Amino acid sequence: MITDLNKDLTITQYNYLNLPQQISNNTDATNEINFLYDAAGIKLRKQTKINNAPEKTVDYIGSFVYEDNKLRYLLTNEGRVMVNDDGTYEYQYFLKDHLGNTRVTFNENEDIIQEDAYYPFGMQMNGLCYETGLDYKNKYLYNGKELQDEFGLDWYDYGARFYDAQIGRWHVGDPSSERYVSLSPYNYVINNPLSLVDLNGEDPIDPRTGKPFYINLWRDGVSYYDESKNNRDVELSRRIPRHLFGLKSFPLTRERCKPDGLWSGAAYNKHKSSISETSSVAKSQLENIFNVSDITSYGAPDDYVWGNAAESGTYTFLNSTYSESEWLHRDENSFDVIEVQDNYISKSATLIRGENEEFNIESVTSFTIEKGDIQTRTKKTWWGGTKTIKYRTLNVTESTQHYKNNKDSGYAIVKNYQTEEIIK
Asked: pLDDT, tens digit, for every residue of 145-173?
């Protein structure tokens, strides 16, 4: 961002880390805010000028904060130690919620100094906030980050970036955007501020664990995964509809089964429904459909087969005898059995839980794929460069046969469509 007409401010200088160095007031260009950082982007100084004359200089030296060369306060894990004008100290404590938002600031005498309330994306609810009128208010508020409120700026300093709670967005791209290629590099915590926080302006964090979360896109939703252990101990934490993220829905078709694509991580569902709970009639039909002798041998102990696929970058299952098919959960009342050939889904059976609590076949879908020639095109990147993408067109025939009482009902739907496959 260069100019914010709403706040009447212009960022006149950025440094090489995309951090603002100088912000000017459009109404009076002699009023400005200047920032100084070290080579790692850590803020060392903030100076405000009025009529080109320094009005206030704040220096940050670790936990010590100086104002006009005078120690003003020392930050602690639980709040801050204020240095009064007479040289005495006052211990102040921050009472925070589950997201690290400071709600109440009080002193050692249990006197409430300040109360703060926020909208979900961090903008303050002024009608619910309270201050005692002291000359040095607490500015470490939303997510515990310092509010930069000079000249109506109202940005929070997260370290790697500044966050504008008024619009719920960052003003510069995400340094970790390559991990979230499906999302805007300006989004805040994947648009889920009620459950996630951002510690330094780079990754959404689960405040319960303090670990970063990455996402995968489903046909009908978005799932978060904790990849802090290289995908080996991934647990499905949350699945919510895509439209809540402002994302377009995938068509209800099976694309090429890529570990980093549509089906990645699908077997990490917490629900323990499995093929062992499938009716004997359905099992027998599945063995005929997939031409196997014992359908119960296909699967993943504790749902971990898909994690192996995600780690290896191709379909490599825990046991080589499972190389052509597996079952995976959709939710506690349904799951799919799929057959994979040459990294494409060739056949899929959907099972649902019946009134007797056993799973029965709802439908069987077969896929025939004609692959076009590999082509290339260039695409602009968010940082202004270009990259070459290899792709080809897939002509897909999708035939779905519906079942009733585990028998072919005679009702079938055939779809013909084209989809594009990106060649990794």
From this structure: 999 999 999 999 999 999 999 999 999 99
